[in-house]
Amino acid sequence: MAQAFSPPGSWAGGDRYEAYVGRWSRPVARRFVAWLAVPAGARWLDVGCGTGALSATVLAAAEPSAVLGVDPSPDFVAHAAAHVTDPRASFREGSAQALPVDDAAFGAVVSGLVLNFVPDPVAALAEMRRVARPEGVVAGYVWDYAEGMQLMRHFWDAAADLDPAVRGLDEGLRFPLCRPEPLRELFAGAGLADVEVEEIVVPTVFADFDDYWTPFLGGTGPAPAYAAHLPEADRVALREHLRSRLPVEPDGSIHLTARAWAVRGRWSSHAAS
């Protein structure tokens, strides 16, 4: 039963995360980095760097002098270090709520798909502001779980059809932060100036149903962890219910979209005073 299951508090399995959602984070990261328009030569901090998708995008598109990725998961840090081998990049373990870096050290402090998972987002924003240089950019993006992240929306709606108690696990309900106004309030409340929120929508095209379903069996992330905990008969029922409700093209492919909300502000000591 859903009441007996608690979503995982930690993340592991870099390859499984990439198959599930990392591959869709990358096109969002490209749009996000372009929107920030940080001048070349800046030092970047990637808070909650995960498997390194955002760090790799910064290196490819923003001409940074250096990128440091910080994440609490040793598995993700190892994965990022193994796959992002640019000499300008480095990765270390650490918490968003107590960043292991000096004050005013970075021209851009960013976070991708992380802020809603941090136990205290207010503390995380205070830390991100602390380590940003004067006039530096502080920014992040999160999935719109409630409406626009369709691959997850279909999953939780199908799961709730079979067991209404699942609604308590639905990321759309668990993460009210992942909407424009709460994000704007979080960043403005941290003393950041010129706060803006931007919609980013990217296509998520699956070759066939197995391409959609198999990543949910990896156990990395709340929805895959829920699928993994189900008894086999219940998991098969969920799989077939999903198969019946997804929009399948004549060639078997499934065309969905994923919406993220991006937010940015500027650390100005004058604005905070």
From TrEMBL:
InterPro entries: Methyltransf_11, SAM-dependent_MTases_sf. Residues 45-138 form the Methyltransferase type domain. GO terms for biological process: methylation. Keywords: Methyltransferase, Transferase. Coiled coil: none annotated. It holds the Pfam family Methyltransf_11. GO terms for molecular function: S-adenosylmethionine-dependent methyltransferase activity. This is SAM-dependent methyltransferase. It comes from Petropleomorpha daqingensis.
